[in-house]
Specification:
The protein is of the alpha/beta class. The protein has one domain: Alpha/Beta hydrolase fold, catalytic domain (Rossmann fold, 3-Layer(aba) Sandwich), CATH 3.40.50. It has 13 helices and 14 strands. The strands form 3 sheets. It has a 10-stranded mixed sheet, sandwiched between helices. It has a two-stranded antiparallel ribbon with strand order 8-9. Strand 2 and strand 3 form a beta hairpin. Helix 1 crosses helix 13 and helix 6 packs across helix 8. The longest helix is centred in the middle third of the chain and has 16 residues. The protein starts with a strand and ends in a 5-residue tail after the last helix. InterPro entries: AB_hydrolase_fold.
Length: 454
Amino acid sequence: MTERKGLSRRAVAAGVTGPGNAAAASRGPYATHGSGRAASVSYEPVPVGRGGGPSGTDRVHVLKVGPREARTVLVLVPGGFGAAGDFRLLARDLVEAVPEVQVWAFDRREENLVDRAGFDAPDPAAYYLDGRYRSQDPAASRYVAGWGLGVAVEDLRAVVRTARQGGRRRVVLGGHSWGATTALAYAAWDFRGDPGCRDLAGLALIDGGVLGAFGGGRPNSPEDVRKRLAAIDGGAVFDMSMAAVKLGDRAESTQIWYQLAGWYAHTDPEGRSVLQPRLPDFLRTPYPITNAALLGTLVDQGFGWPNDISVHSGHLAGTGDVRDWVDDGITPISRVAAAYAGPRPTVWEWYWPARLSLDLDVTDSYTDNELARSLGLALRHTAELNVPLYAFETSAYGGAALAAAREVVAGSRIPYGVYDSDESMNHLDPLFATTAHNSATRTLAAFLTRFRGE
């Protein structure tokens, strides 16, 4: 549906959180080649401004999918605890559907902190679960206290401007969940007098945004903000929400478990689960299961996970000695595993900055108020947005995402909005669902075709 003018974050719910995304930031570029528009895939660094971190952290990375000669680039920002690998399958499907489009998936600078060497080791589970990997000590990572939304949008601007090639190419900026919030913040941001929307040809929001897009926001009173800032200044620099799953007490513990589950499900799906004996009792089935089945139990909504951290995949099979996974939903477990595993294990952000969570919460009001200014959030151009907007929502937030997008359009100079929804999808299904059943891919591709003749 198109409307013209005049006409979770990923939540931590029920004490758990779930499958997200992370990307390999410490590795060099990789590339694959083959037939079709989606064949070109690379992971490339982009230099950014100084952020106070150790050597090697003043850069971000971009997963590039599709033809390098494309005149339109869709830059996608992952959501909370997510990273570039979130979009690998979606990007591949989009560039197959739309000629002259390349997709760039953005990895934040935090990905430079991750140790992914274990996925090249003979026994990845032992490397990570027995503590052999390089972990980030919060006490030695005080610089992360400054990695809020201001740093993220400045880094994102370096990516957008690289993609634009001095104006020779168009950039549509979008994101999933909190990535959609980030895209809208960028569009309204004041970059030393220049509105961010001046860099853009369009905006694409997938199940997220501002103005209550997640079905209600956290209280952001000045007192609440002061308390959260004090905790960050006191050393709580990483957002610890993922620890609610009870798979470990470090910032990265849950992400490691899910990343391993995806890796084994991809490399040996029918093999007996390597991770099952190590799981805590509350997550362990009373019978042996395969690697694919273990990933299914961690991501499928049938196991009680909240809507915004789950997919419609399938169920455990039969009563055999080792139970496997049967796909009967729109998101086959093999696609989830493929996104998790390759070409590098890149679907989780391990070290999400607490300051970034705070800034994104405050950004929900999408106004240049005193509280936003006190945090350095330069949201000064919300009324000046003047590019087409696409918004898609799943069943996760009860219609709030599209209502919020319409409010953004109504309060700006956006010429038209394109809106679509799919109540059969959970919050993460748009990232991994099979091509034929992915409404987000189909409708976003249609939106992108509008830019081909410009």
